[in-house]
Amino acid sequence: MILTRRALVTGAALGAGGLLSGCDALNGSERFQRMIALAEGANLRIQRAVTARGALAREYRPEERSPVFRSNGTAMPSTPLYQNLLAGGFADWRLAIDGLVARPLSLSLGELTAMPAREQITRHDCVEGWSAIGKWRGVPLAGLLDAAGVRPSARYLVFHCADLFGSAPYYESIDMVDARHPQTILAYALNDRMLPVANGAPLRLRVERQLGYKHAKYLMRVEARDTLAGIGQGKGGFWEDVAGYEWYAGI
Ligand SMILES: Nc1nc2c(c(=O)[nH]1)N[C@H]1C(S)=C(S)[C@@H](COP(=O)(O)O)O[C@H]1N2
Ligand SMILES: [Mo]
Protein backbone atom coordinates (compact mmCIF):
# COMPACT_ATOMS: atom_id res chain seq x y z
CA MET A 1 0.00 0.00 0.00
CA ILE A 2 1.47 3.31 -1.05
CA LEU A 3 0.30 6.25 1.00
CA THR A 4 0.30 9.63 -0.63
CA ARG A 5 -0.81 12.84 0.90
CA ARG A 6 -3.60 12.98 -1.71
CA ALA A 7 -4.82 9.50 -0.76
CA LEU A 8 -4.93 10.53 2.89
CA VAL A 9 -6.81 13.74 2.13
CA THR A 10 -9.22 11.97 -0.21
CA GLY A 11 -9.73 9.23 2.34
CA ALA A 12 -10.51 11.74 5.00
CA ALA A 13 -12.92 13.63 2.76
CA LEU A 14 -14.70 10.50 1.60
CA GLY A 15 -14.85 9.25 5.15
CA ALA A 16 -17.61 11.71 5.87
CA GLY A 17 -19.74 10.39 3.01
CA GLY A 18 -19.24 6.73 3.90
CA LEU A 19 -18.10 5.73 0.36
CA LEU A 20 -15.12 3.73 1.51
CA SER A 21 -13.52 0.40 0.74
CA GLY A 22 -10.16 -1.32 1.34
CA CYS A 23 -7.29 1.08 1.89
CA ASP A 24 -9.57 4.06 1.63
CA ALA A 25 -11.47 2.79 4.65
CA LEU A 26 -8.22 2.59 6.58
CA ASN A 27 -7.13 6.04 5.38
CA GLY A 28 -10.41 7.42 6.61
CA SER A 29 -10.01 6.15 10.13
CA GLU A 30 -9.16 8.94 12.50
CA ARG A 31 -6.86 6.74 14.55
CA PHE A 32 -4.89 5.78 11.44
CA GLN A 33 -4.54 9.41 10.39
CA ARG A 34 -3.20 10.30 13.81
CA MET A 35 -0.75 7.41 13.66
CA ILE A 36 0.60 8.53 10.29
CA ALA A 37 0.95 12.10 11.51
CA LEU A 38 2.88 10.93 14.54
CA ALA A 39 5.18 8.73 12.43
CA GLU A 40 5.90 11.61 10.07
CA GLY A 41 6.72 13.88 12.99
CA ALA A 42 9.06 11.28 14.49
CA ASN A 43 10.80 10.71 11.15
CA LEU A 44 11.33 14.42 10.72
CA ARG A 45 12.76 14.77 14.20
CA ILE A 46 15.10 11.82 13.66
CA GLN A 47 16.13 13.12 10.23
CA ARG A 48 16.87 16.56 11.65
CA ALA A 49 18.76 15.10 14.57
CA VAL A 50 20.94 12.91 12.35
CA THR A 51 21.79 15.56 9.77
CA ALA A 52 22.31 18.24 12.40
CA ARG A 53 24.79 16.17 14.40
CA GLY A 54 27.03 15.61 11.38
CA ALA A 55 26.95 19.17 10.04
CA LEU A 56 30.10 21.26 10.22
CA ALA A 57 30.46 24.25 12.50
CA ARG A 58 31.06 27.48 10.60
CA GLU A 59 34.71 28.23 9.83
CA TYR A 60 36.01 31.79 9.60
CA ARG A 61 38.68 33.72 7.71
CA PRO A 62 42.01 34.51 9.41
CA GLU A 63 41.18 38.23 9.64
CA GLU A 64 37.97 37.44 11.53
CA ARG A 65 39.92 36.10 14.51
CA SER A 66 39.52 37.80 17.89
CA PRO A 67 42.50 40.00 18.76
CA VAL A 68 42.74 38.16 22.08
CA PHE A 69 41.43 34.69 22.78
CA ARG A 70 40.51 35.01 26.43
CA SER A 71 40.79 32.25 28.99
CA ASN A 72 38.05 30.95 31.23
CA GLY A 73 37.89 28.58 34.19
CA THR A 74 41.31 27.32 35.17
CA ALA A 75 44.13 29.44 33.72
CA MET A 76 46.99 27.71 35.55
CA PRO A 77 46.55 24.26 37.08
CA SER A 78 48.16 24.32 40.52
CA THR A 79 48.83 20.64 41.13
CA PRO A 80 52.48 19.61 41.67
CA LEU A 81 52.11 17.07 38.85
CA TYR A 82 51.11 19.74 36.32
CA GLN A 83 53.65 22.24 37.63
CA ASN A 84 56.43 19.67 37.14
CA LEU A 85 55.28 18.83 33.62
CA LEU A 86 55.13 22.55 32.75
CA ALA A 87 58.61 23.18 34.22
CA GLY A 88 59.96 20.43 31.96
CA GLY A 89 58.38 21.93 28.85
CA PHE A 90 55.94 19.00 28.79
CA ALA A 91 58.75 16.63 27.72
CA ASP A 92 57.49 14.12 30.31
CA TRP A 93 53.77 14.67 29.60
CA ARG A 94 51.92 11.80 27.94
CA LEU A 95 48.37 11.50 26.71
CA ALA A 96 46.86 8.15 27.68
CA ILE A 97 44.13 6.71 25.47
CA ASP A 98 42.69 3.70 27.24
CA GLY A 99 39.56 2.00 28.56
CA LEU A 100 37.52 0.09 25.97
CA VAL A 101 40.29 -0.02 23.35
CA ALA A 102 42.24 -2.92 21.83
CA ARG A 103 45.57 -1.03 21.94
CA PRO A 104 46.00 1.48 24.79
CA LEU A 105 48.19 4.39 23.68
CA SER A 106 50.59 6.67 25.51
CA LEU A 107 51.53 9.59 23.27
CA SER A 108 54.12 12.33 23.74
CA LEU A 109 53.60 15.86 22.45
CA GLY A 110 56.24 15.18 19.80
CA GLU A 111 54.36 12.12 18.59
CA LEU A 112 51.07 14.02 18.45
CA THR A 113 52.50 17.00 16.57
CA ALA A 114 54.05 14.62 14.00
CA MET A 115 50.63 13.15 13.12
CA PRO A 116 48.38 14.39 10.31
CA ALA A 117 46.76 17.59 11.60
CA ARG A 118 43.66 19.66 10.97
CA GLU A 119 43.41 23.44 11.21
CA GLN A 120 40.13 25.28 11.76
CA ILE A 121 39.11 28.82 12.58
CA THR A 122 35.99 28.57 14.70
CA ARG A 123 33.96 30.51 17.25
CA HIS A 124 34.00 29.42 20.86
CA ASP A 125 30.78 30.16 22.75
CA CYS A 126 30.81 30.18 26.56
CA VAL A 127 27.56 29.97 28.55
CA GLU A 128 28.81 32.84 30.65
CA GLY A 129 28.08 35.14 27.74
CA TRP A 130 31.21 35.63 25.67
CA SER A 131 32.55 34.30 22.37
CA ALA A 132 35.92 34.33 20.67
CA ILE A 133 37.16 33.26 17.25
CA GLY A 134 40.47 31.44 17.09
CA LYS A 135 42.52 29.20 14.83
CA TRP A 136 43.16 25.75 16.22
CA ARG A 137 45.56 23.09 15.05
CA GLY A 138 45.39 19.54 16.30
CA VAL A 139 45.01 15.84 15.68
CA PRO A 140 41.59 14.58 14.52
CA LEU A 141 40.20 12.42 17.31
CA ALA A 142 38.72 9.87 14.86
CA GLY A 143 42.20 8.83 13.70
CA LEU A 144 43.41 8.37 17.27
CA LEU A 145 40.39 6.20 18.05
CA ASP A 146 41.20 4.02 15.07
CA ALA A 147 44.86 3.78 16.11
CA ALA A 148 43.77 2.68 19.60
CA GLY A 149 41.20 0.27 18.20
CA VAL A 150 38.23 1.60 20.16
CA ARG A 151 35.81 -1.25 20.88
CA PRO A 152 32.23 -1.27 19.55
CA SER A 153 31.01 -1.40 23.17
CA ALA A 154 32.46 2.09 23.82
CA ARG A 155 29.62 4.65 23.92
CA TYR A 156 31.45 7.61 25.45
CA LEU A 157 34.85 9.21 25.63
CA VAL A 158 35.75 10.71 28.98
CA PHE A 159 38.41 13.45 29.03
CA HIS A 160 40.40 13.59 32.26
CA CYS A 161 42.11 16.93 32.96
CA ALA A 162 45.06 17.98 35.10
CA ASP A 163 43.28 20.78 37.01
CA LEU A 164 41.27 20.49 40.21
CA PHE A 165 38.37 22.53 41.58
CA GLY A 166 38.97 21.96 45.27
CA SER A 167 39.43 18.21 45.23
CA ALA A 168 37.30 17.57 42.11
CA PRO A 169 39.20 17.09 38.86
CA TYR A 170 37.75 18.82 35.78
CA TYR A 171 36.46 16.24 33.35
CA GLU A 172 34.14 16.09 30.36
CA SER A 173 32.62 13.49 28.04
CA ILE A 174 31.17 13.21 24.54
CA ASP A 175 29.48 10.44 22.55
CA MET A 176 30.90 8.65 19.53
CA VAL A 177 29.02 10.87 17.03
CA ASP A 178 30.88 13.94 18.28
CA ALA A 179 34.08 11.93 18.81
CA ARG A 180 34.16 11.08 15.10
CA HIS A 181 32.97 14.49 13.84
CA PRO A 182 35.59 15.83 11.36
CA GLN A 183 36.11 19.05 13.37
CA THR A 184 36.66 17.25 16.67
CA ILE A 185 40.38 17.57 17.32
CA LEU A 186 42.84 17.42 20.17
CA ALA A 187 44.44 20.84 19.73
CA TYR A 188 48.03 21.74 20.61
CA ALA A 189 48.21 25.14 18.87
CA LEU A 190 46.15 28.33 18.96
CA ASN A 191 46.67 31.07 16.36
CA ASP A 192 49.85 29.42 15.02
CA ARG A 193 51.57 29.17 18.41
CA MET A 194 51.82 26.30 20.86
CA LEU A 195 48.82 26.39 23.20
CA PRO A 196 49.26 28.92 26.02
CA VAL A 197 48.83 27.50 29.53
CA ALA A 198 45.72 29.66 30.02
CA ASN A 199 44.07 27.95 27.05
CA GLY A 200 44.88 24.36 28.07
CA ALA A 201 48.53 23.51 27.35
CA PRO A 202 49.75 21.12 26.20
CA LEU A 203 46.53 19.67 24.73
CA ARG A 204 42.81 20.46 24.78
CA LEU A 205 39.68 19.17 23.17
CA ARG A 206 37.89 21.13 20.44
CA VAL A 207 34.36 19.80 19.93
CA GLU A 208 33.05 22.58 17.73
CA ARG A 209 29.33 21.75 17.76
CA GLN A 210 29.09 22.19 21.53
CA LEU A 211 29.42 24.97 24.11
CA GLY A 212 32.68 26.04 25.72
CA TYR A 213 32.60 23.97 28.88
CA LYS A 214 32.68 20.74 26.83
CA HIS A 215 36.13 21.70 25.42
CA ALA A 216 38.27 20.08 28.12
CA LYS A 217 41.68 21.71 28.64
CA TYR A 218 44.88 20.24 30.21
CA LEU A 219 44.19 16.74 28.86
CA MET A 220 45.88 13.82 30.58
CA ARG A 221 43.75 10.87 29.59
CA VAL A 222 41.01 9.92 27.14
CA GLU A 223 39.05 6.95 28.41
CA ALA A 224 36.60 4.96 26.26
CA ARG A 225 33.64 3.75 28.34
CA ASP A 226 30.20 2.21 28.02
CA THR A 227 28.73 4.31 30.85
CA LEU A 228 29.26 7.67 32.53
CA ALA A 229 28.36 6.22 35.93
CA GLY A 230 31.21 5.99 38.42
CA ILE A 231 33.08 9.11 37.28
CA GLY A 232 32.59 12.28 39.33
CA GLN A 233 28.92 12.38 40.25
CA GLY A 234 27.96 10.46 37.12
CA LYS A 235 26.55 13.31 34.99
CA GLY A 236 29.42 13.22 32.51
CA GLY A 237 31.22 16.45 33.32
CA PHE A 238 32.39 18.77 36.06
CA TRP A 239 29.79 21.51 35.41
CA GLU A 240 27.09 18.93 34.73
CA ASP A 241 27.79 17.50 38.19
CA VAL A 242 28.07 20.70 40.20
CA ALA A 243 25.78 23.15 38.39
CA GLY A 244 23.35 20.99 36.40
CA TYR A 245 24.66 22.11 32.98
CA GLU A 246 23.33 20.07 30.07
CA TRP A 247 25.46 17.06 29.14
CA TYR A 248 24.68 17.60 25.44
CA ALA A 249 25.40 21.29 24.89
CA GLY A 250 24.81 21.41 21.13
CA ILE A 251 25.12 24.70 19.22
N1 LIG B 1 40.31 21.47 32.32
C1 LIG B 1 39.45 22.49 32.13
N2 LIG B 1 38.84 22.60 30.96
C2 LIG B 1 37.98 23.62 30.73
C3 LIG B 1 37.68 24.57 31.75
C4 LIG B 1 38.36 24.44 32.98
O1 LIG B 1 38.19 25.24 33.93
N3 LIG B 1 39.24 23.40 33.15
N4 LIG B 1 36.77 25.58 31.50
C5 LIG B 1 35.82 25.37 30.39
C6 LIG B 1 35.07 26.56 29.98
S1 LIG B 1 33.70 26.99 30.89
C7 LIG B 1 35.37 27.24 28.83
S2 LIG B 1 34.40 28.52 28.27
C8 LIG B 1 36.59 26.92 28.08
C9 LIG B 1 37.48 28.13 28.05
O2 LIG B 1 38.56 27.90 27.19
P1 LIG B 1 39.70 29.01 27.13
O3 LIG B 1 40.28 29.13 28.50
O4 LIG B 1 40.66 28.56 26.10
O5 LIG B 1 39.00 30.30 26.74
O6 LIG B 1 37.31 25.82 28.60
C10 LIG B 1 36.54 24.81 29.17
N5 LIG B 1 37.39 23.71 29.51
MO1 LIG C 1 32.53 28.42 29.56
Automatic annotation (TrEMBL):
It comes from the Bacteria. Pfam families: Oxidored_molyb (PF00174). PROSITE patterns: PROKAR_LIPOPROTEIN. Residues 91-226 form the Oxidoreductase molybdopterin-binding domain. CDD domains: bact_SO_family_Moco. Signal peptide: none annotated. This is DMSO/TMAO reductase YedYZ molybdopterin-dependent catalytic subunit.
